[in-house]
Amino acid sequence: MKIPLTVKVGPVNYDVVEKPFIEIDGNRNYQGACCYADTTIEILEDISAERKPDVFIHELTHAIFYEAGFEEQDEDTINRVAKVLHQVINDNNFKE
Length: 96
Prior knowledge:
Layout: E1 6-9, E2 12-19, E3 32-35, E4 40-44, H1 52-67, H2 75-91
Parallel strand pairs: 2-4
Antiparallel strand pairs: 1-2, 3-4
Helix pairs in contact: 1-2
């Protein structure tokens, strides 16, 4: 799966960037993040190429839920939806 440089979620364009570290609330133990205020999806640059699409879809799912009006999100729900969404994208050969 090719990860885009930007992705449109509802009316908002999110930039997709790779970073040397992802910090949330002073903790750097993250592989990705979705920053709603900055409209960015961040992916840790030194994770494997095989893992990056999974992280991207997870963070994209956060953006989808946020733009749909779910400002409070349960991480377990995001994990479950993201895993199925990733599988749907892979199994149906969507164009890159």
